[in-house]
Amino acid sequence: MKKIVYFFIISLFIISCGGKSGSSSDVNFSVQSTSSVPAPAPSPAPKFEEAAVSDAVNVDNAANMERKLIITVDVRINSRDVEKSYKSVENKIKEYNGYFDTVESSKNRYYLTIRVPKDNLYNFINFLEETENIENKNINTQDVTDTYYDTENRIKNREVLLEKLRAYLREAKSIDEILKVEDRINTLTYEIETMKGNLETLTSSIDYSRVTLNISNQEAIKSNTNIYNKYLNLISFLKEFFSGILFFLVGFVAVAIPVVLILALFYYICFGKIGLIKKLYRKIK
Prior knowledge:
This protein is 64% helix and 16% strand. The protein is of the alpha+beta class. Strands 2-3-5-1-4 form a five-stranded mixed sheet.
């Protein structure tokens, strides 16, 4: 009986040890499976994305911006000596570091397009008012401040982007990326050069105001016009006179020829070889 009890106790002990061993094995397996870390995925190839570029003018700096104005002036001068007036204007333009855009001249008239530095513009206008007889004067002002600074800002932003593109081009590896970046570089370069040309033209118009000057001797022009009109009237009279004579002659000839022919035929029949009147007269005798 004691042997059976001992055997039963030993069996329980063995079974309990086996259960602990089994649960320990499960735990170890679970820990190993949860502690395993997957291999890191390969990082994708870098993809170029063009940075957004703001073309807006900074509002904080707007108050500090110098205003950009294009000023154009039209002046008409009545001068008794247009050559003297032209020489006077030419000397003053040289003094003010200006230049002539166009010079057109005819008898008793000069038509000038002048570029005058903006700082000397009103000095030049005052000079004309003091020395010449101005018949008409117009001054027009166009504010291009926003256009000027907006264009300037666009150029700066595109130049920054262009440098980024060139830096990326040096690191690009695929042919497709290289071609796309080069195409974008060419487009940006063209845009920058175009905007720089527009900005230079705008700057020139701002720095050098355009003055259109019409110098003429109205009395001489009117006198020449009167003489010319008299000449035209004389030509017109002579044309009408000779046209009338020609018309009369043509009409006279058109009427006279049939009359002459009829008279010649009558004479031939009555007094000519046929001589009807002669024969009748002889019979009466």
